[in-house]
Automatic annotation (TrEMBL):
Natural source organism: Macrosiphum euphorbiae (potato aphid)
Cellular component GO terms held in the UniProt record: cytoplasm; nucleus
Upper taxonomic lineage: Eukaryota, Metazoa, Ecdysozoa, Arthropoda, Hexapoda
Location in or out of the cell: Cytoplasm; Nucleus
Protein name, UniProt field: Exportin-1/Importin-beta-like domain-containing protein
Family stated for the protein in its record: Belongs to the exportin family.
Pfam families linked to this entry: Xpo1
Major location category of this protein: cytoplasm
Domain of life according to the entry: Eukaryota
GO-annotated molecular function: nuclear export signal receptor activity
Length: 974
């Protein structure tokens, strides 16, 4: 570069520094920025603009220009690299590397990382042939104490990019990168080990330890550890895992990877794994030895728990033999109950669960570790009694509070131990009786609430839940006694002035609500034991409980938690009363009438509880024997109308109640249909009007969606009782609403689902409707298939056509009196052959799509059609489609388009071939080979001789077919 060039480059650098500074100035206008952006774009298109970029990196301190230059280099490397001369490529590589070495202390870290990434990107494509000194560059940096962190950054990024590269690299190149990289691993590991051994001598030892262990932790995710983790390296790494910092987490991540993988067991490998097992328990001992666990971060604790889990699951036999008295489980026990973070505690409980699961294969351990498992139950019971401090108000996505999760996790452990030692169920009952007696005492003497915190009933919630989880271990007499006690307490706790409505502290109120709610919920799980108990029925306990529940549900002062528990218990109490309705009619009518006539709106109940009450009320109306059918229809009509107070905008509750109250016998379905028919007719009318109106606002679309969902669920529930006139109106409505096909994808899918249901259930003789549905389906599907477009509606369209074939088969193949079951394949007369042909053609096209869900759906569909109607054996199918379908499916196997479905595709081809094996082997396969491009004649001859031998047995056929398609694929690649 001569002096004149230097002047030009210097001037250009200053010019771009000014431009970029102005570009990023907040006061610059968008118009100015737009002009500058055009100049920047032109710069990137200039020949050898990278030379100017290198000059900028060498001489500028303007960070805007430095990043601009790096971005231009990145664009050149990614888009123009192949167009550069080898000399230019080499010059640019060396310039970037020299900038890294010379300026790494001046540039910010993100710029150095960017430059490293540029060189690694070049190496992904060029190393080792056109970038032979790439690894040498890394090694050069690693052995220099001043540049070792740069070398480690290079190595880490190389490991990430070479082993898990983006999809823009061909499979062959990916393999080459890994193979070549592996050749250098021994040398690199030797250097890394030396760095670790000498890091303590450096001033930045913490940074070096962290960076080296980070590189190792990444590499051991893909390296076979048995070849590269030596005992010497292991002993260098082990001390680094004991201090709680980033280095220790990296180190433990390495050990976790090593322990998790399968390996070939040699003497060295056995030594390393056994050392790591013992090392894991030394880590646990270190944590337990500290009086307060708070010094350990959650991240460190999580990785220790992960390793502990792997060690116990995978290396049980070694632990069992090495620790003769089960000391490893004793350590796990102490470690488990040192966890302050709930998630870590739960992970420890998961380890115990995995132990119990594995004990089915180790019967000798059950007695050997009895003491530890019983200690575990005692510790869990103590832990479970701390539930009061855990959130019980906020629900997660699964509808559970933290408190519920906490109780369930702990109770699962107790249940697991009870499975091994059923005897532990007895003390649970004894403890529960102590707690329940305390509660009964307070129920009878509310003034004792002043000393509530000292009472044993504080532990009643977890104890009751544990008791319920162990119900299978109790004798019937004990179960009934427990259930009666729960029943009495449930009545007493809600019937009189409840304790939680008395003036006590907020925390006491919360606990009392939890107790009463738990008793009601537990009773719902035990109640079935009393339903056939004569003494219980004679004492009218069921009626008392029912009255208490309904009264509580009507009382707006009751807490939501109590309402919810009553809603859960109500169906289990009411069902036996409905079975013997004549005995309970007056009571049910008296107590449920406020819900039936609308005097109580139920708005004070949550949705699930409201549904429970309304389902119970509806079942009573439908079961009540004292009404004539006409009166029952009128009463039911009014009741159903009350479930949707906002009309068509509020149909969800009506649908939920009707669906949840089933199943119904035919006579009941007729009554329901008569009662709901006005609402159905109104829904269809409004749907027509709304869809035909010019407005297309989203709220209207949402309303239409609700209406269609309602019609769909009602049709599925009541189709066999609906009048033919209404079904006709419903069918015609959906067929006529053409504008819906572009208005809303969701609406279109729902309409198609309803049409599919109607096709499935409608009269077999309704040929006109079948024809219209086929026409509609094909008109909408064919343009999509032709354009190779597969929006979500395509699946529903294909399903509609499948329903036509499956449930309206006689529309195409009318039954003939002259045919017998002895000649099933003689059913050759095809009515409406043009429509039949088009349907099979569009199904055939779907087997050429890359959309695996559509492919799988239609493959399953034609198989079901063959099972039901012997599709492949029909002469019409054999003549027009058999060869085409088998050709397409074979091509899919050869091209490996849908490898995950290989077995299903092979089975379908077998079923098609089996209708005429002679044709398949002697005619179809030779023709298929003849039409396959890029195969030499000698290869075709080989395939005919080796892979086309007639085989009718399914397993051999599928093996041969897989070999044939693989051979064809390999032949085409040669």
């Amino acid at each position: 570069m001569n002096g004149q060039d230097m002047v030009v480059y210097e001037h250009e650098m200053k010019n771009y520094e000014m431009m970029l500074t102005e570009f990023y100035d907040a006061n610059s206008s968008n118009a100015v920025k737009l002009c500058m952006q055009e100049e920047f774009d032109k710069f990137g298109e200039r020949d050898k603009c990278w030379v100017q970029c290198c000059y900028n990196l060498e001489n500028s301190k303007n960070q805007y220009l430095l990043m601009f230059s790096l971005n231009i280099m990145e664009m050149i490397i990614n888009k123009k690299w192949e167009k550069m001369t080898f000399k230019s490529q080499e010059t640019l590589r060396e310039a970037i590397f020299n900038h890294i070495v010379m300026k790494h202390k001046e540039y910010p870290k993100y710029m150095i990382s960017k430059m490293i990434k540029l060189l690694v990107d070049i190496a992904r494509n060029d190393w080792p042939l056109r970038y032979p000194n790439f690894i040498d560059h890394i090694a050069q940096l690693l052995v220099n104490p001043e540049q070792v962190l740069l070398g480690l950054s290079f190595l880490l990024l190389s490991s990430e990019e070479f082993i898990s590269p983006k999809e823009d690299l061909l499979g062959k190149r990916k393999h080459e990168l890994k193979v070549n990289f592996l050749k250098h691993i021994p040398k690199l590991f030797e250097i890394l080990s030396d760095i670790l051994k000498n890091a303590h001598k450096t001033s930045n030892s913490d940074e070096i330890y962290e960076a080296v262990t980070k590189v190792f932790s990444d590499m051991f995710t893909w390296l076979p550890f048995e070849k590269h983790l030596t005992p010497d390296l292991l002993h260098v790494l082990m001390p680094l895992g004991k201090k709680e910092n980033a280095t220790s987490i990296n180190t433990l991540t390495i050990f976790n990877e090593v322990l998790s993988k399968s390996y070939t067991q040699t003497e060295d490998r056995y030594f390393i794994l056994s050392e790591l097992c013992l090392y894991t328990f030394r880590l646990v001992e270190n944590i337990i030895a500290v009086p307060e666990i708070g010094f350990v971060s959650e991240a460190y604790m999580v990785i220790v728990i992960e390793i502990l889990s792997v060690v116990i699951r995978k290396y049980w036999n070694y632990l069992d033999s090495h620790f003769n008295n089960g000391e490893f489980l004793e350590l796990l026990l102490q470690f488990t109950f040192r966890q302050d973070v709930l998630d870590c505690y739960y992970q420890c409980l998961d380890i115990w669960c995995s132990i119990f699961e594995a004990l089915s294969d180790r019967p000798g351990c059950t007695e050997k570790y009895r003491r530890i498992f019983l200690d575990l139950v005692e510790r869990v019971t103590q832990k479970i009694n701390t539930f009061g401090s855990i959130n019980d108000e906020t629900y997660d996505d699964d509808g559970q509070t933290e408190c519920q999760i906490f109780l369930n996790k702990n109770i699962e452990i107790i249940s697991n131990v009870a499975h091994l030692y059923p005897v532990i169920a007895v003390p649970v009952v004894d403890n529960w009786k102590v707690y329940i007696n305390d509660y009964i005492t307070i129920l009878n003497s509310p003034m004792l609430l002043e000393n509530f915190k000292d009472s044993k009933c504080m532990f009643l919630v977890p104890s009751t839940r544990t008791l319920t989880s162990l119900s299978g271990y109790y004798e019937d007499s004990m179960k009934i006694a427990i259930t009666k006690m729960l029943n009495d307490i449930a009545i007493q706790g809600v019937a009189t002035t409840p304790l939680y409505q008395l003036p006590v502290s907020q925390s006491t109120t919360k606990t009392l609500i939890q107790i009463q709610s738990e008793i009601l919920t537990a009773l719902s799980r035990w109640m079935h034991l009393l339903n056939n108990n004569k003494q219980f029925c004679m004492e009218q306990n069921r009626e008392k409980l029912f009255s208490v529940l309904v009264t509580s549900l009507q009382d707006t002062r009751q807490p939501t938690q109590i309402h919810d528990a009553c809603g859960v218990l109500l169906p289990t109490v009411t069902e036996p009363m409905l079975v013997h309705i004549s005995e309970y009619t007056s009571l049910l009518e008296q107590l449920l009438s406020p819900f039936l006539d609308g005097s109580i709106t139920l708005n004070h109940l949550n949705k699930k509880t409201r549904l429970s009450v309304r389902v119970t009320s509806l079942k009573f109306l439908l079961t009540c024997p004292s009404q004539e059918e006409e009166i029952k229809v009128l009463v039911l009509m009014n009741y159903l109308k009350s479930l949707a107070p906002s009309g068509l905008n509020d149909l969800k509750m009506l649908t939920d109640v009707l669906v949840s109250s089933g199943p119904y016998k035919m006579s009941t379905r007729r009554i329901i249909y008569r009662s709901v028919e006005p609402c159905l007719i109104e829904a269809v009318t409004h749907l027509k009007n709304d869809m035909q109106s010019e407005s297309s606002l989203n709220p209207q679309m949402e309303k239409c969606e609700r209406v269609i969902t309602f019609l769909s669920e009602m049709y599925e529930l009541l189709h066999d009782t609906m009048s033919p006139q209404f079904v006709q109106i419903l069918m015609q409505t959906f067929v006529d609403l053409d504008m819906i096909w572009s208005a809303s994808t969701m609406l279109t899918i729902k309409m198609l689902e309803v049409l599919s249901l109607i096709v499935k259930h409608s009269s077999k003789s309704n040929k006109e409707f079948t024809s219209v549905v086929i026409k509609l389906g094909l008109e909408k599907l064919i343009p999509l298939v032709a354009s190779n477009c597969y929006p979500p509606t395509v699946s529903a369209l294909y399903n509609l056509l499948f329903c036509v074939l499956m449930y309206k088969w006689r529309y195409f193949f009318p039954a003939s009196p002259s045919l017998t079951v002895l000649h099933p394949t003689n059913d050759n007369n095809v009515d409406n052959s043009e429509q039949f042909t088009t349907i099979l053609e569009v199904i055939g096209y779907s087997f050429m799509t890359n959309d695996i869900s559509i492919f799988s759906q239609n493959l399953k569909a034609i198989e079901e059609l063959h099972v039901q109607w012997n599709l492949y054996a029909k002469e019409y199918f054999k003549h027009y489609f058999l060869s085409k379908y088998m050709t397409v499916l074979l091509n899919v196997m050869v091209n490996k388009s849908h490898t995950i479905l290989s077995d299903e595709i092979s089975m379908t081809i077998y079923n098609m071939a089996s209708v005429d094996f002679d044709y398949f082997f002697s005619k179809f396969l030779p023709d298929y080979l003849k039409q396959t491009d890029n195969i030499r004649n000698d290869q075709r001859q080989f395939l005919r001789q080796k892979r086309m031998q007639p085989v009718k047995e399914l397993p051999t056929f599928m093996i041969n077919l897989a070999q044939l398609t693989n051979d064809i694929r390999c032949s085409k690649q040669i």
